[in-house]
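As agreed, record passed on underneath.
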Amino acid sequence: MLVRCGTENIIREWYSIDTNQIEIKDVATWSLEKGITKMVSDFLYERRSNLQGLIMRAVIVKDSPYIIKNKNGEIDGMFGKILRELCDTLNFSFNIVSEVKEYGRWNPDEKTWSGGMAELYTGRADISISDFMINNDRLNVIDYTIPLLTSKNILVIRQPENLTIQWSSHFLTFTLSVWIAVLGVLIISSIFLVLLKIKSGSDNKIGYLLIDNLLEIWGIFCQQGLPNFPKKSSLRIVYFSIFLSIIVFWAAYSAALISFLTSVNYVLPFDSLEGFVADGTYQLAIPRGTAYYDRFANSKHPFARKIMKLMLKDEELPISEYEGFKKICKNRKLALYTTDQINNIENLKIPCNVVAIETGYISNFAMILSKYNPFTDVINFQLQKFIDNGMINRLKDTSFQMKSNHMIKHQPVPLISVISLILFFSIGIFSSICILIIEKCIFVRKEKNISMKDRIPSIKSSVLYVKRKKSIRNLAVDYADRKCARIQFTSNNYNVHSDGFLYPDYNFLI
């Protein structure tokens, strides 16, 4: 209260931190001439920044990921460090009166709170230094500090064993416009080479020149050399430019392809909370006694009721995030609902590889005090100063595990990720072998045809010789037959007289 005693012109502030002692401070002067003149700063809690060694009763949640006890038995973790800074700044201390297993939720059947909420609700503690999610149900029975941590809510499942075979990753290294540009360069360079060769006096047809140049440039693209390097300077410049461009292209392509292959993508059964409900094959686990559970259990929304059908029974829910991770590592058909900051906590060791899926929900976390606690405002005022001067961010950085100085560790490339590349090589080798066999068969057939053509003249000459010999023999036989016939004809058509002369046989003639 503000007090003016008697006729004094000084207005004083009376307040009490300890019930046995009253603190009195001069606030302003009051006169009829000048009115009220302030003597202190405008901020009330700038003046009341000394709690004079007050001891507050505190409760902590044992398995809270943001508050732990170090080797010396001191409170550590993000919220523990923030509380220690508050104690030093405001000159107060705390005494841990209880350690509970869960944060606490409202039991509508028994009309009671559980966990850390029950300790403050019943008046057994003044403050809980663990991380409590802010929601309306709790706000009715306790006081929150200002939000100290904001995080996304995620579903965590065990890392699937099946990986995607990225058939398109070999082409996704460049955009479509880049591939079109590369193809255009190959075609335009081929046409340009045709024009240069025609101008240089080549006798080949334009179609043959174009096909030859396309094959040569494709060979260069596949990192092969030229059979004959041209003598013309203009052609040499063009070929050298193409070689240089292809080297740059392959360097960029190799770097991009390695990035694609080392970025392993998993085949997820769902990619959202709605997909999780639609899938229906997974069960949901939420740390027991948390506000996450109340978000769905106390909601009348149809979607929340669908989620509750997939929820584990109360006695099967894990006590903490660590217990939840152990459960999902044993059961592949179980998902854990938690915060995305869980992977950054240094003291939390996840027993298996997990995958996080965003749900679209955001949660704010803060410390809690008993309802209408007289020190809530002064603590919030000091926490806001910590936020403004960057102390909260520094405490977060020292509490959370910085993963390898923000460097991403690429995992080894599994065989299944390069199976498409191996298949491409296998198809190329098989096609080459088939083409080689076909070319060999064609070559052997041509050789046989050539050898047969060479034999045909000799065969024809031998046959001609035999025919000529036969014809000569036939001529000789024919000549002998004709001679015999003439002699016979003569003996038959002439008669021999007594005088020894031959006379025609006129009877025969008749």
About this structure: The chain is about 45% helix and 20% strand. Residues 402-408, 489-494, 499-503, 505-510 have pLDDT under 50 and may be disordered. The radius of gyration is 51 Å.
